[in-house]
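Usage example:
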Amino acid sequence: MRFSTRLSDAVHILCFIYLNPDENLSSERIAESVRTNPGYVRQLMSSLRKAELISSTKGHAKPMLAKDAEEITLRDVYRAIEGDKPLLHLDTHTNPECGVGVNIQLALQEYYDRIQIAAEAEMERITLQDVLDGYHERIKKDKR
Amino acid sequence: MRFSTRLSDAVHILCFIYLNPDENLSSERIAESVRTNPGYVRQLMSSLRKAELISSTKGHAKPMLAKDAEEITLRDVYRAIEGDKPLLHLDTHTNPECGVGVNIQLALQEYYDRIQIAAEAEMERITLQDVLDGYHERIKKDKR
DNA sequence: TATGCTGTTATTATTAAAATTACAATAGGA
DNA sequence: TCCTATTGTAATTTTAATAATAACAGCATA
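Running the assembly step on the lines above writes:
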């Protein structure tokens, strides 16, 4: 596979919705900004809707954030998009005849969980508003 | 792609070397435990050697840890294997005509860096010895 | 010297991600 | 009501990173 940019694309979509509250926001229009196709955008939006981060209705090109930007954390988005998929993956395909391999992987799980928790804790400290603030700072700098 | 299990396999190799200090440890033998092929094992070992986590010599099937197990952290292994590859990836392929996309991704970078630092900080707290301890605990439990 | 192994590179296969396609169903306007 | 634009969803295809495989020069040891 190629490495996933789904979280990045989902954040992009959320920001784009926030930044364009009035305009006609079709998946086609969003897809142009992300430079992808409308189907992919709708798939991500479907996940975001199920996680109640946005609301949208069939046939109506007016998606909206379902919460304030301060209330949406990167962890919310990560979970919405990736579900339980972790950042690091065990090799669960080691030789079962060799107890060493299996037990090392099982031992590793415990530590991977810690790393996941640390990463998600940091994600939880970052809100969509933070990303938007960073975005606005950049826009300002660009103009100078 | 499939998702990477390289870090897990590298830890497996390190533990396997630690646990079998006397035996003839060919890449073939290690590969059997990981249930993979010797070439892949040698590639990972090549990265570990370059990072000075193990020592090994051409033609001689006696790889050794180059440091104490307490001195090798998960972060060391991660860096040895993955280099600068981060856990989360920006979408660097957004529409350049749309400043929104580009700037959102650039803003995200700053926050992804934070998450990476948090994850690596936790990795740094975990040593090969910790994993080995977890492994030994499991072995004990299995026997009961 | 002969054998077995390493270190390295090149090539192929596998598979998750992303792209693409298709279509029933809904919203809103003419 | 009919028409157009769009959504929501699923199915299929393409792309590309990972892992598997193959090949071989060069070193270690018997």
